[in-house]
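Appendix B. One record, verbatim.
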Amino acid sequence: MGNFVVTFARGFGTGGKVIASKLAADLGIHCYENRILTLAAQLSGLDEELFREVNERIRTKRSTFAGMMKGLPRSRKYIARNEKFVSDDTLFGFQKQIIKNLADTESCVIVGKCADYILAGRPNVVSVYIEAPRDFCIKRTMENMGVTEEVASATIKHTDAYRAEYYKYYTHGNYWTNPINYDMTLNSERIGIDECVELIKAYLKIRGFIE
């Protein structure tokens, strides 16, 4: 049985990141989100010659970008986006390379970063979208961020708009919530956070990725 990847896209406040983390923990594999962006930002700051050396080392020694991310911190907080989306093709190019390398070399969970699009067509990839009603997302955001209902609502609106613009730009016009992009679209309020994890595991068994 080879390696597999589960990608997650999610509305803000839906619990998608929690579901992804719980799934990875249950399966004993890594969950990657902000560390991909952190490493990509570091790599994009290298001059061209130094980056070629890093890239060559990755290819010739069969090492992985995962090893370079081991020392990077994982975010335990909600990652909100209140700013407007501004494209950075160079940074996205590094993220894309990292995601492809991860999919080639290990079983893992990848949250966001257009991973479903980047890895589309690969037989070892399962893509999941997590959504939930706005009231549910507002309540979770208020509890997790310690903010008022008004701030929670605005944060969800701005962050989801940012994610939609990000996805549309880097997928050349596709839209983020398109169910055709994903193997599974789950409502985390109706199903429950832990039950979403179990459903995804059941699907992975159907696909033959886990026993």
